[in-house]
Amino acid sequence: MLKLLVIEDHALVREGLVRLLEQLEEEVSVVESPDFESALNLLENGEEFDLVLLDLALPGIDGFVGLDILRRRYPAMPVVVVSAFDDTPNVTRALNLGASGFIPKSYSGEALLCAIRQVLAGNIYRPSGQQSVHLNDETPLPSTQIKVRPDEIGLSERQAQVLALMVRGLSNREIGDQLQLSEGTVKVHVTAIFKALGVSSRTQALVAVTRYGIDFRNVL
Fold this sequence. Notes:
This protein is α/β, with parallel strands linked by helices.
């Protein structure tokens, strides 16, 4: 029998996921957990699951921290992130932390089941054609306690250097002077940075740096 664990705090979403997952095959057991602590208690008491579905926005814990804990303690148990925060940096970061897949909550039931089947077949699922989230000060992205390298979210070494100087408040001209680049080249890098972070302005980029926990210690 296929045994699944759903970790999701919103009851309506959790119940909907359970009903969908019960369609995977004839014999499916789906266990629900409204928070990470109760899920961890199940696992520590010896419960075994073929797959865990994890929401990122859980009460009491950063979702990425929870994912990291699960992957470290139960490396043989696949974990799929199911989240509304499906921009490129979050997807990439989740997969880099060991998630077996990332499924946006905007998916239809059929698309979700298809993605789950791919993971159960041993594949890593990443959403195709994912759209970037445009950030602003009110965007409730999950905060982070784990540092992420710039390359983990798709930034090149030079783009990471430009972003690090943007964080320090330097203008494009000042960044060009420091990195010995033309102002036009800096603008090209800034555009690429905005695309990678899913933002459209410097202010939003700085918000993203904080929320994703980008580590610049080895950049400059």
